[in-house]
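pinning this so it doesn't scroll away 📌
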Amino acid sequence: MDSVGVQQSVSSGRRIVRVDERGRSEPFGAEPVAASGDAWPHLTLEEYLRGPGEEREATLIHHMLVLNIGAGYRRELRWGDDPTVLRYTFQPGSISLFPAGTRFRVRWLDEGHALVVTVEPSLLREVQGSKSRGLPGLVPVAQASDPLLAHLIHGLREVLRMPRASQGAYGAPIGHALATHLLAHYGSSNMLATGGALPLSRLRRITEYIDRNLDAPLTLRELSALTGLSVFHFARTFKERTGLSPHQYVLRRRVDRAKELLSDCRASLAEIALRCGFSHQSHFTRAFHLLSGMTPTRWRERDAHVEH
């Protein structure tokens, strides 16, 4: 990945930290190429350019946003105790949201260039005012396209390049705008009120249902009915949770199942296609080649060669 233009500006002071399994606070496992330090009272921004790797399971102290400012890269994400591992390509310009108190583990298989911003929950409470008691919550999002939020994060990055004396005056209004946007679009109470939330328990129920019924048509209306959400809200929140549309997710699971069945040389391609929910063998072949880079026949031949 092209690293030209990455600013080597790391301010001293506060770092983004999380709590590991032993209750110890620790920063990320790599040094940022740029960091805000103590430039703003309720916000921290760090820029990372990292090769393939992973972050150990930990819990966040503050809300965290990750904006991909480089090329798309493959990512594996697991939330809390949910055994489901979300595998997807984190697209350029996409954003992930990890609410305060969220436990997660993430692994990336390619080089990644990202801006990471943490927001103290107290800032959201300050922006919200006296509308409700307690600290407002946010919903976790694996991948979302949000041009305005991305613009605000880029704005913070530009402020970090200003003289130190100017950073506070310019950064504070951007921070308040960012907090206002988070509450309006990702606040847990707002999402529940509009039917937009897809709890992890429901997501697990949907993915298990898909795996049990890969030989069936699996319509969007059918899947949305299992969640109690409208078709529109289900499709939107499913993609936010998994990084894939329901159709893309089902197609990938069908191909994954086909790979398992291809190891049984006694099954014909036509039979495998039907058992994986493809209406025609030609449709199966096209989808398989699109997602794996080779035909089912070639995959079977390669698999047999590896075994011998």
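📌 and the second one:
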Amino acid sequence: MTLPSLVALQAFEAVSRHGSVSAAADELCVTPGAVSRNLKLLEATYGERLVERVGRGIALTARGRMLAEGLRPGFEQIRRASAETARAARCTVLRLRSYTTFATRWLLPRLAAFQVANPDIEVQLTMASLWTELAGLDAAIRLGEGDWGLESHPLIANILAPVAAPRIAERHRGDIAGLLTHPLLSTPHRPDDWTIWLTAAGVHDTSGLRFISMESSAIAYEAAIAGRGVALAQLALVGDDLATGRLVRPLDLEVDRGQHTYRLVWDAANPKADALQRLTASLTGPSRAPRPVDDDPA
């Protein structure tokens, strides 16, 4: 059987939802007479009544209900596809990659705030443990000095300090030698951090120390929380753990890595530069740090 006019089917589907010729006409931006003519065309095609008048409204016949139930999913899918296409045409998509630990411990809540404030920009985030080149990406988070020939914007102060579970930290409060009897949790992605901190602490002979390499900083932090050793934390990434007491700083000594920090990087020639600048401003602006909640209204 040859398909009936799609315009007539659309008119009928709109009438079936609204129960009104006038309302269907308003939705379709046509006259009620045009909707009525399309209904009659369908009824002539099928040789059966599809609608009937009930008072001032329209009701579907049994055959009309059957047709409406069959058409509705298809037209819903068309409307959905059309809306998504229209939204995509207005939306700039930014493909962003981040280190997994940095994303989960710092970036994600800030991206959520950015998306709410910028509905015309969609950030598609992927995560990885290692740095990869920008091929196929619009921007990335990279750890380093920023001398890569790219737009490079520091995101956090990269301050290092040892952290441990409360029972270990309290036992060795202010006691570097005692603290270093525990396993020192490290990650191959930050190979120099412990050496830099130990040097600042005046510890130059590391031959007797036990270093345990973890796949990521996130795993090292979880191991420290479980009392498996001492992690050298980037303080900006363990703020919640310190605030809740899951991790404790046993020593006051901290080392600021200065320009060696996490950066948002992107190619200045990227045609999405306007959206990238807005993302940069959001992540580097004054509101990037979570604000403490003041329980005292006074």
